[in-house]
Write a sequence for this structure.
């Protein structure tokens, strides 16, 4: 049914070879098609020409970490049989409003090529791309077998685009819309799924703001028997989620709506039963404004939970302490800092299998907050959860000693992202810079892949990072360092560095140019509000023609300053869709 | 807390300011400049390292949390009486935050002559000219920013000016505060040479 293109046999080859050919091409392709990871696939393609070709013809999934590093035409030429595309666009700091609107990363030109070359495209996963309603409609009408649409941190579309998807994608299995900047014109899109449509497995519309027609949702959930992920938005009430759970007890991941409805005891009991009936439930999120009064309805499901996302519930420490003993199987926990250190102590004592913890600030802008979490909460978690390897921690105070203890308890960190919210803040007990904290992290955690640093940091921190962080791939730096030497240390070390993002640091042209040998082996470099000048950037561009050196000009700054610089490797040269405020040097 | 020399020569970066004292200032919004000597503001500097007090004003890009979560936290409406008992204090705090940050902000660039890196300030988060002055004094660690009200004090020599919608540079303080907010595009602190130098 699906015509996979076959390459024409190269007959001359079999005539010439006096020895046995190692594998017939089809066998090699079959074997290689079992190699799934795109990094492994990339390695496979570098072995020899035969393997390059085998990979080329058998590859069905492609991952492009920077949409401007390559063109859709080149992709189409090399890989004729793609079914699944993952594309990432804007630099990560665009999440924090550092990239102006209309910067680029529009998906449309890609879709036009794909429609011609990959009519059997099934999956499109986009992150930080611009997607218009027109593009969504084009997508819905161009790929009859389309199954998976995942849009993460994208913008440019409205719910009208979703209407097109719901209406035309007859084989859709996944619709995952997360954290996008979209125009929510109403919930009518959900009603566009025809009554004959039954294939949905994943539906996530948690970040959309308007009401959907509950009836339509309930019917949709009822008839999609393979539905395993359902994440609704906060307009769905507790009573409604109960009805949905009854319709779909097979659900594995649930994102509830608002948890604030007033319930009578009967409704409370019904909710408890509903959660209890979901035997496969391992992920729970949503819980908007959940409070201690109604949180217990989820207790029957807690024993099986491996991922609990409480980042929209302003829980206090005692509420969390009551909840967590029910959740001894947790691997991933996301909370707000309203739970405070005491809540984190409960994490440490109740969740020994925890691998990932994220603590977000509930009131990020109030500097006078005496609440939130401190270093003791983090230490408490590390002491009870020895398997912890991923942390994102927002706090207002930290000490070098605490971090040293934390990594001693948990030496297997792969992702260590610490955000001391007051920029340039020292160890509050000793008044020393936080250099030794991150020194301890990189010396102890040899598997570290991702690091975000904060607090008062001198060049010493970066010397440690350059020297010890052998597996580091992603580094985020803000308000840190003393001189060019800092960034230079990183560029001279960190052999596996792929992504470096820096803001508000005293690194200048010398630092930028010290990375000349490194940038082609990296995906990208971002530097904003540092000490770069246009001349420095021009020098980099001149010396490295296969890099795109883009400067985003700030209208109010000096002509010689390079306020925001984005450097990335590309095989297609300067991009042709750059807006007037982006200068490619 | 220790006192430190806040002159530009000691810290590695040319931008220093006192975080702790200015954060105290943020909440005492009705305090007038005249009652707070510049020297008071430099006390409380606990380290002579780069400090970035600008960030205290709830910038749109710091701390690094995504827009969706940021909006959800800023716009969360107070809960119904039955559920708000345990988190009412948090909600109250959130309401105050809502008034000073979140969706209502106007960031203008501030440059001080001689300092390469400009800063940004949310003028809508300020309560008036005195608040603006002391915030800038902290931000650039310079006492005695001169504005309209004190221009007769000849020994002060950092002059604060702003560019208005017409592109003209005016002395800050020449119009009422509310009008200033509608017309300010960016700010500049110029350093006229001291009489002795």
């Amino acid at each position: 049914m699906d015509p996979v293109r076959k390459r024409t046999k190269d007959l001359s080859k079999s005539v010439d070879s006096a020895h046995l050919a190692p594998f017939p091409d089809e066998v090699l392709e079959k074997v290689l098609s079992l190699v799934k990871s795109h990094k492994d696939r990339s390695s496979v393609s570098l072995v020899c020409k035969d393997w390059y070709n085998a990979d080329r013809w058998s590859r069905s999934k492609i991952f492009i970490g920077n949409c401007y590093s390559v063109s859709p035409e080149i992709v189409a030429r090399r890989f004729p049989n793609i079914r699944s595309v993952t594309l990432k666009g804007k630099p990560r700091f665009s999440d924090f409003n550092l990239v102006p609107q209309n910067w680029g990363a529009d998906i449309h030109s890609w879709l036009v090529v794909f429609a011609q070359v990959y009519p059997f495209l099934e999956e499109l996963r986009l992150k930080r791309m611009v997607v218009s309603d027109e593009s969504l409609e084009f997508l819905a009408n161009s790929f009859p077998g389309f199954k998976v649409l995942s849009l993460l941190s994208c913008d440019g579309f409205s719910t009208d685009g979703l209407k097109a998807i719901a209406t035309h994608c007859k084989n859709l299995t996944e619709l995952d819309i997360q954290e996008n900047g979209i125009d929510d014109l109403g919930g009518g899109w959900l009603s566009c799924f025809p009554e004959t449509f039954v294939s949905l497995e994943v539906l996530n519309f948690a970040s959309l703001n308007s009401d959907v027609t509950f009836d339509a949702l309930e019917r949709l959930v009822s008839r999609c028997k393979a539905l395993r992920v359902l994440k609704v938005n906060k307009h769905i009430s507790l009573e409604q989620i109960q009805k949905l759970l009854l319709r779909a007890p097979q659900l594995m991941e649930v994102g509830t709506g608002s948890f604030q409805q007033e319930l009578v005891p009967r409704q409370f009991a019904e909710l408890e039963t509903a959660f209890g009936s979901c035997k496969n439930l391992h992920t729970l999120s949503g819980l908007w404004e959940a409070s201690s009064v109604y949180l217990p309805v989820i207790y029957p499901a807690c024993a099986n939970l491996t991922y609990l996302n409480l980042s929209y519930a302003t829980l206090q420490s005692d509420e969390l302490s009551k909840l967590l003993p029910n959740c001894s199987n947790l691997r991933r926990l996301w909370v707000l800092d309203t739970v405070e250190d005491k809540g984190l102590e409960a994490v440490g004592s109740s969740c020994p299998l925890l691998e990932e913890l994220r603590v977000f600030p509930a009131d990020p802008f109030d500097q006078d907050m005496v609440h939130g979490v401190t270093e003791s909460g983090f230490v408490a978690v590390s002491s009870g959860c020895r398997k912890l390897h991923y942390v994102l921690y927002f706090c207002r105070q930290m000490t070098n000693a605490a971090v040293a203890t934390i990594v001693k308890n948990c030496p297997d960190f792969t992702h260590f992202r610490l955000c001391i919210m007051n920029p340039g803040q020292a160890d509050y007990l000793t008044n020393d810079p936080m250099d030794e904290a991150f020194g301890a992290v990189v010396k102890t955690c040899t598997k570290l892949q991702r690091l975000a640093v904060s607090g008062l940091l001198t060049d010493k921190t970066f010397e440690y990072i350059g020297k010890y962080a052998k597996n580091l791939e992603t580094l985020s730096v803000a308000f840190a360092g003393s001189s060019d030497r800092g960034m230079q240390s990183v560029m001279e070390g960190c052999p596996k560095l792929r992504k470096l993002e820096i803001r508000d640091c005293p690194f200048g042209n010398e630092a930028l140019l010290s990375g000349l040998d490194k940038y082609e082996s990296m995906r990208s470099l971002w530097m904003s509000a540092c000490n770069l000048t246009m001349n420095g950037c021009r020098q980099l561009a001149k010396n490295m023609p296969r890099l795109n050196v883009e400067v985003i000009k700030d209208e109010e700054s000096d002509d010689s300053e390079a306020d925001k610089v984005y450097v990335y490797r590309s095989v297609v040269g300067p991009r042709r869709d750059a807006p007037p405020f982006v200068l490619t040097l | 807390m220790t006192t430190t020399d806040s002159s530009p020569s000691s810290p590695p970066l040319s931008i220093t300011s006192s975080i702790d004292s200015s954060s105290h200032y943020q909440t005492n919004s009705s305090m007038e400049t005249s009652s707070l000597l510049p020297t008071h503001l430099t006390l409380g500097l606990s380290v002579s390292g780069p400090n970035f007090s600008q960030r205290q004003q709830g910038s749109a890009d710091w701390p690094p949390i995504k827009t969706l979560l940021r909006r959800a936290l800023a716009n969360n409406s107070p809960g119904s009486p039955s559920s708000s008992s345990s988190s009412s204090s948090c909600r109250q705090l959130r309401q105050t935050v809502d008034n000073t940050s979140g969706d209502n902000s106007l960031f203008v660039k501030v440059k001080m002559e001689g300092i390469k890196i400009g800063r940004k300030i949310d003028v809508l988060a300020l309560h008036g000219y005195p608040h603006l002055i002391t915030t800038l004094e902290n931000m650039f660690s310079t006492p005695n920013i001169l504005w309209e009200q004190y221009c007769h004090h000849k020994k002060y020599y950092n002059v604060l000016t702003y560019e208005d919608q017409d592109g003209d540079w005016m002395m800050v303080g020449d119009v009422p505060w509310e009008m200033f907010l509608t017309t300010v595009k960016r700010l500049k602190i110029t350093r006229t040479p001291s009489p002795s130098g």
